[in-house]
Fold each of these.
Amino acid sequence: MSDHPQVQFIERGWLSANMIVLGGDTRGPLVIDTGYASHAQQTLALVEQQLLEHGHTAPRALLNTHLHSDHCGGNAQLQARYGCPLWIPPAEFEAAEQWNEAALTFRDTGQRCERFTPHARLQPGDTVEQGTMQWHVHAAPGHDPASVLLFEPRLGLMISADALWERGFGIVFPEIAPQAALGAAFDEVEQTLDLIQALSPRRVLPGHGPQFSDLAAALQESRSRLAYFRSEPVRHALHAAKALLMYHLLEWRQRTWPELQTWLAETPVQTRLREQAGEPDAARWAQGLVVGLTKTGQVAADEAGVRLRG
Ligand SMILES: [Zn+2]
């Protein structure tokens, strides 16, 4: 819930981004973000339940805030089931339409996403009307250069995707892209935080973690995290390598050392991060990342391999 009967905030685990369902329109609900591929059945069930509760047979459209695998992994199955159109940010429209895997992020991050078809562009500056709601589309670069966020000024609600969580924000992917212009995307993170501050939502529905109303505290935490990364960009690279490995473990639950090494070697962004950090030894790098994750209590490791705790 989001304190508004026409806005359903469905908080999910970290493997699948949160989903938001906007009702209140005779044309059917809008479904924003669709989780990770391996959760597609769960996503279908959640959408089906929303449709039943509100007496609709299909969503009016699916929307993606950006095309990371945890936000668009249910698109294909939802489209197959309901035949509904998909609206995505304009910067990745052609890449998705042609399924250009070099331009899309799935291969680079060693993640999965089933092919889907976009139909319209969520253009920054546009307004998405749903019932009496008017959701303004804003560009939200930083975590992802193509990402958008949605803001409903009358309700004071913001769908922030991975630009702002209650505790921080998503990996700044342009900083770890091939031939990255180091630091440039940190400026975009700051500009997007400034935009969010200026819009001043009363409640934020983020891409991961719980919804929140204390905007000042969230912005302060994100700004201090940004300052930490900016002062020593290798910290961001290490954070990204651990976060992407953690994501991989969320998908697989456990991996042997050889499986883990193979995945790291075959995942381009992981190789770049190891090189950025100046570590030539792949095995030592893998062990270092795992030790980092065991310190936070998220994973356990022994001679056999690595597994999620709990
Ligand atoms: Zn993302």
Amino acid sequence: MSDPSPVPLGRSSLAALVELERVSQPYPLSAAQLKAALTDDADVVLGLEEEGGLIGHAILSRQPFDAELQAILVAPHQRRRGLGVALMEAVIAQARVWKSERLLLEVRAANAPAITLYRRMGFAEDGRRRDYYPSLDGAGREDALLMSCRLSGA
Ligand SMILES: CC(C)(COP(=O)(O)OP(=O)(O)OC[C@H]1O[C@@H](n2cnc3c(N)ncnc32)[C@H](O)[C@@H]1OP(=O)(O)O)[C@@H](O)C(=O)NCCC(=O)NCCS
């Protein structure tokens, strides 16, 4: 079977998004946050569907000059098959359609899989927000890395 391609999702995908976040994340996005992303004209939600089920998604927001990646997620049992790269390529393509100057994101400083993916896609670290996230073990706080990628042709 060939790999799925990212497609824009609409309101009918809300329940599937909520469930994918719930089973995949220690701090899932809420139904209200996902509904807002699906309905806000400044946001695009991209999804990967296989055998009728949602196995990945990315949320991108349009800002006046830049675009910001709000979320990217691949279902745990579907990781390391190139789907994160496929989602990021679609995110970058959408930001180029918007003529965004840069693509921005924030990531937990300890999230090695995501940081490795972002570096591979051309992102560089711009800075750090100290103690920005609650730590995953619940015992303290964790820094956020601020990363960006300049988009050619902007
Ligand atoms: C980050 C995430 C989206 C990557 O998705 P994925 O489908 O596994 O990514 P890919 O298969 O396209 O991997 C692309 C590259 O990223 C890097 N990478 C991905 N997972 C990695 C891991 N666990 N360890 C080290 N590098 C990793 C590798 O360079 C990989 O290339 P390779 O497989 O040829 O070595 C996925 O791990 C995920 O959903 N994590 C939980 C949600 C999350 O943390 N999102 C980011 C929030 S800012």
